[in-house]
Amino acid sequence: MINIRRPRTSAGDHASTGPPGARRTESPSQPEQPSSSWLRTVLRHDLPASLVVLLIAIPLSLGIAAASGAPMIAGLIAAVVGGVVAGALSGAPLQVSGPAAGLTVIVAGMIAEYGWAATTFITVAGGAVQLVLGVTRMGRAALSLSPAVVHGMLAGIGAVIALSQIHVVLGGEAQSSVLANLLDLPGQIIGHHDAAFGIGIVTFAVLLVWPRIPKVSLIPAPLVAVAVATLVSIGFGLTVPRVDLPENPFSGLALPTLPAGDLGGILVAIFTIAAVASVESLLSAVAVDKLHSGPRANLDKELVAQGAANMASGALGGLPVTGVIVRSSTNVAAGAKTRASSIMHGVWIALFVLFLGSTLEMIPMAALAAVLVLTGVRLVSLAHMRELWRHREFPVYVVTFAGVVFLDLVKGVLLGIAVALLLALWRLTRATVEVVEDSTDNWRVVVRGSLIFLGVAKLVNELRRVPERKRVVLELHVDFMDHAGYEAIHDWRSSYERTGGTVRVDEVQDTWYQRARQGRPEQRKSLPGQLPRWFAPWSYWQNMHADDITADGACPDAGSIVPEPRPGADPMMLGMHEFQRRSAPLVRPFLSELAARGQQPSQFFVTCADSRVVPNLITSSGPGDLFTARNVGNLVPRNDNETTGSSVGAAIEFAVEALKVPSIVVCGHSLCGAMNASLNGGARQGSHLASWLRHVEPSLNRFRAEGHDHDPSVPGCVDLDAADRLSVVNVVQQLDNLMTYPSVRDAVDEGRLTLVGLYFDISEARVYVVDQATGRLSPVDPAAVL
């Protein structure tokens, strides 16, 4: 009885739904960190890091609030909520959230249209959308937005911020649009704003110089720049606009009110806040993951955290919240280890506002504007431009950037997405056509890619370049062909042949044209890449006249699959020509190396001469991997037999003694003619075949002695007929025969040689391992190869 041993699945195999090899972030099965160790980590790493992030968060939060046209206190509220709420719930523990420059333009437009109180309601609603997206596990879907669109959007926002805040640096006021800012800029530059401009120059200088000073760069440059500018303005008694906070911070809180206006516009505003805040937060989380080796981000959980933070911030009268890469990277660089750093930085900001608010009111607005100008300029990244140029995504970036700057953010992003989709469609459906003159009378047209209606005009134009009355090979390397593509080829071919030419359609990758002609058009794209021709028999790809119209003018039978080769054509010569043309350039480097260092095969592979058994195919091996011996029935005559001097014996000794192979494989197969002839007769008496098949007799005796009958009551029993069961027994017998050779026996005893039995089911294209002791079959065990 022949059994398949089914792999057992442990309970742990079903415990995780994540991809293999994925690192778990916060598993409840993992032991919790002792409280004393956690406290040491917080005090040693997170507390200092939170103070560093505090120093950079305050000036940025104030500057973003000013640039948005929101109350100053709104930026600080968002910073507190982003630190405490988003930090406590975050799926990216080391990410720091707060008001972000990327939302400045959007919020400014909403405040101008709906007012500040209504904008806080939009923030709450946007947070609710984020919360739903996170709960429904849409976090990763947000990352499907093209990076070119995201970077173009950020660059456009940066340009808008810089153009508006440079007016504040010069002592003026930002205008309502980019065009107005551009038109008013020459007048601002010419005007005399000595005090404000001086403060801006001081701030710019510190921002640029401070990071270059060794050993002090850990203290954030924006904090130092704002502090220096504030001291200069106080020391020289300059009269310049400064931060204005309410005397009672709680009096500055604005409760959300329903916006008045078009419902469609309000919904667009809500989803814009949700979309931009989500994408910016998730991209920041992914970027932060690259900065540390701790737990990886859970993007769905992070989206829930950002939604909750935006609902809380809007409800308290704060700006929208996102994950901010500037603060997050500072947090990691300062040595933070847990989410405690983000939470504590929010607490410090709240305490600062409550007890040191008068200190913040000393800060000149020009200093905050200078920080934002430099922040906006840095959003226009030349490195991103070069990267997108190399990947041919720069048009998407440019369109998004221009749309955000000269129209508005939503229109700019939509334009960028549209260009990205058109570019992707063009790439996915692009077909290249090459017309080559092989000789005076022989022409070749090579088509590669996806052939759909968008590429038909180019294809027809190239086909018309072929002179009349020539022999043409139309070589198709296509992974998709729609009806327009098929019809263009078929019409051209019919017309060309009527004028006296001949056309042969040679489908290399897949039979799209042939199936369409037989009324069986395919609907899905082919597998990516070009499949080597040796995957299929000669008759499948040497379809010399499969596409020809039959003598009576009808198409070939739609049920026919295997075309007949052209009369008189030598399939081997055609195959060798195909090898020289396609495969030789790919395999030549490997063969050159093998020729230089000699053969060092990993296996001696003994198998049947059956043409359907291809050792390199079923083992996914290449040149130099297998030392192969093939004969009728994959037989290994015993060493004590009168045929000791056979070629099989010579191959065994050469493989073990000279090549020192680490394993010998004997591979039997289903539907074996040798086994069938041995079991049922069929070899002519006195023939060489009958003489050779005498070596099957030990296998026959073993088969009959063991009573290999199929028993359906045995779990896992393979339903094989008698000849196939004999094939399996024959593999076991040949493994025993191998041990009669001294060189094999010695190598096995010394542990430097293993013997393996295989059985190949031809119809199922499945390989089984044969147990030498029991004769049972078992599938190839993935654990044995991983």
Provide an overview of this structure.
The chain has 786 residues and is an alpha/beta fold. Helix content is 52%, strand content 9%. Helix 1 crosses helix 14 and helix 5 packs parallel to helix 16 (394-406). It is elongated and about 120 Å long. Catalyzes the reversible hydration of carbon dioxide to form bicarbonate. It is a multi-pass membrane protein. It catalyses: hydrogencarbonate + H(+) = CO2 + H2O.
**What Rg, in angstroms, do the CA atoms define?**
38 Å
| Relative strand content | 5-15%
Contiguous low-pLDDT stretches (5 residues minimum) are 1-32, 544-565, 710-717
Classification by helices and strands:
alpha/beta
Strand order of the largest sheet: 8-7-9-10-11-12
Binned, the helix content reads 40-55%
Number of helices: 29
The biggest beta sheet reads:
6 strands, mixed
The total beta strand count reads 12
Family: Belongs to the beta-class carbonic anhydrase family.
Catalytic activity: hydrogencarbonate + H(+) = CO2 + H2O
Subcellular location: Membrane
Organism: Allokutzneria oryzae
